[in-house]
Amino acid sequence: MLFSCLYLLYIVLLLLLFEIAVFNFGLSAAIPPADFTGFLRPELPVSAWFDEDHNRGFMRVENFTSKIYRMWKVDLADLDRDGTREVLLGVWLNKRRHDEPEPHRAVWVLGWDEELKALRELWRGSALARPLRDFVVREEKLVAKEKVGNRCFETIYEWTGFGFTSNRRVSILCEAK
Ligand SMILES: [Ca+2]
Predict the structure, then answer these.
(1) What angle do CA 75, 87, 90 make, to 5 degrees?
(2) Which candidate, 83, 94, 132, 136, has a CA 20 to 30 Å from the CA of 175?
(3) Cis before residue 42, ω within 30 degrees of 0?
(4) How many angstroms does the Cα of residue 146 sit away from the middle of ligand 1?
(5) Can you say whether residue 15 is alpha, beta or left, with left for phi > 0 and alpha for psi between -120 and 50 degrees?
């Protein structure tokens, strides 16, 4: 049942993708409002659409349409401070880790490729240091909400160019969800 629902959603998204492709060729198509909008730079708007369960989706930047990701969140941060924001993509992964049932949440980083005019996957981390529950962007940094057992933490991650390193972690109250 679950799989048939997921398959149906997958097809619906593919159809959406097709509609958007048609739109690009100047034909009319109804595009639902994006679930996320932002800017890589003022002239580079980003939009993202999610399925009903918020577990799959895709992004658009200019004329580029990404593939469908098993994604649960999109945010933007200029991690390397070069003036163009990167995409922080919350994804579901099946890869096993010792401290979490699968699937689990992870964050990937996508960057805008000026030559290809496309989003490119810069970093596909299998996991951060601790089980991830959510993340936000603060001062162009990734701030992860993590949970270990019954304890919750907020960890600030710095981008190294090849991945993240965490240098500050504080205990926080666990949210109900
Ligand atoms: Ca950047």
Answers:
(1) 60
(2) 94
(3) no
(4) 25
(5) alpha
Query: pLDDT tens string for the chain (177 positions)?
Result: 666 677 667 767 766 765 665 555 444 456 788 999 999 999 999 999 999 999 999 999 999 999 999 999 999 999 999 999 999 999 999 876 666 667 899 999 999 999 999 999 999 976 677 889 999 999 999 999 999 889 999 999 999 998 999 878 999 999 875
The pair phi, psi for residue 56, each rounded to 5°, is -140, 155
Ligand 1 geometric centre to CA of 3 (Å): 37
Give the pairing type, strands 86-93 and 104-113: antiparallel
Instruction: Find the angle CA(72)-CA(76)-CA(77) to the nearest 5 degrees.
Output: 135
Structure-token pair, residue 18: 């097709």
Class of residue 60 by CB neighbours under 10 A (exposed 0-12, middle 13-18, buried 19+): buried
The SS3 call for residue 167 is strand
Rounded to the nearest angstrom, the distance between the alpha carbon of 112 and the centre of ligand 1 is 8
CA 77–ligand 1 middle distance (angstroms): 7
